[in-house]
Write a structure and sequence with these properties.
This protein is of the alpha/beta class. The protein has two domains: about 220 residues, Rossmann fold (3-Layer(aba) Sandwich); about 35 residues, no CATH class. The protein has nine helices and seven strands, in the order E-H-E-H-E-H-E-H-H-E-H-H-E-H-H-E. A seven-stranded mixed beta sheet has the order 3-2-1-4-5-7-6, with helices on both faces. Helix 2 runs antiparallel to helix 8 and helix 3 packs across helix 5. The chain is globular, with a radius of gyration of 18 Å. The two termini are about 20 Å apart.
């Protein structure tokens, strides 16, 4: 898989492992250069006090967990933008001027363009329009990444000392609709409100279902569940170390991680490829930064 480069652009330390650990492990094992852009330090995540022993802050702990997971997954490079976590939409934390949600959009776009022009990925993956589960940081980095995807190849968009570079494919992460429907149904059977799910009752499962986007790509990750589990386990402060529901579902339905292809525009809403590098031109001359 020489000359193949993949960038994942997410919000927090743990997004890479919990959401795409199997996919990352597969492409690294096959020889691709895989890069990770982490927009925030995850510093307002809920953390058990005993886990902070030896760390000066939640951010320091979360970034140390990311470093451990990154070593397991094998990223070529991790870009840490250092924004403050915004918390959920219902939190007043998102009103903090230092948080990602309040950051100037054009500034964030420029920083993502700089990353794209440095690592020159043919393929970029980010969250869907709803940010997976409505997290403001997910939505913010998704919007910036999608705009940066197109601007990175525009010669009129100038960044310091960098040449334009146009990635060839853009994807959103995708959660199997069946998984969400089962989660909603289970909560209803338990007489729980599916609009108040999660540790802090701030995840709206019904809204996640309403914002699901069609999947076009299904990547087989069955051979990489062990590495996925190991990367997850590094994020102990966020519940890592156990089998996450998404992984359990993928094991049951055949180990295929699905994605929504944004560019090139799909001709139909159906699975039509098994590899994010399908159709990618690998022979383009590229001068790495």
């Amino acid at each position: 898989m020489a000359n193949r480069r993949l960038l994942l652009s997410f919000a927090h330390p743990d997004d890479e492992s919990f959401g795409c650990g199997g996919l990352i492990a597969r492409y690294v094992a096959e020889g691709a250069d895989v890069f990770y852009l982490c927009a925030t330090n995850g510093d307002v995540g809920t953390v058990s006090p005993e886990l902070l022993d030896g760390y000066n802050s939640v951010a320091e702990l979360r970034l140390a967990e990311l470093d451990k997971a990154s070593a397991i997954l094998g990223f070529k490079k991790v870009f840490k933008l250092g924004y403050k976590d915004s918390g959920m939409m219902s939190d007043t934390l998102k009103d903090d001027p230092a948080c990602l949600w309040q950051a100037d959009h054009d500034e964030v776009v420029r920083r993502v363009v700089e990353v794209i022009r440095e690592c020159k990925p043919q393929v970029v993956i980010t969250f869907n329009k709803y940010g997976g589960y409505g997290h403001p940081d997910h939505i913010k980095i998704m919007r910036a990444t999608e705009e940066a995807f197109y601007k990175a190849g525009d010669a009129s968009y100038v960044t310091d000392g960098q040449q334009p570079y146009a990635p060839q494919k853009l994807y959103y992460t995708s959660i199997p609709t069946m998984f969400i429907r089962i989660a909603v149904w289970t909560m209803q059977m338990q007489r729980k409100d599916p609009r108040k799910a999660g540790r802090n009752a701030d995840i709206d499962m019904q809204a996640i279902l309403e914002n699901v986007e069609a999947a076009h790509t299904k990547v087989d990750v069955r051979a990489y569940f062990d590495k996925w589990d190991a990367a997850n386990a590094c994020h102990v402060s966020q519940g890592g170390g156990r089998s996450f529901p998404l992984q359990r579902v993928l094991r049951i339905i055949g180990g295929g991680q699905t994605l929504t292809r944004v560019y090139p525009t799909p001709t139909a809403n159906k699975i039509d490829e098994r590899d994010v590098f399908a159709g990618v031109r690998l022979d383009e001359p590229v001068q790495m930064s």
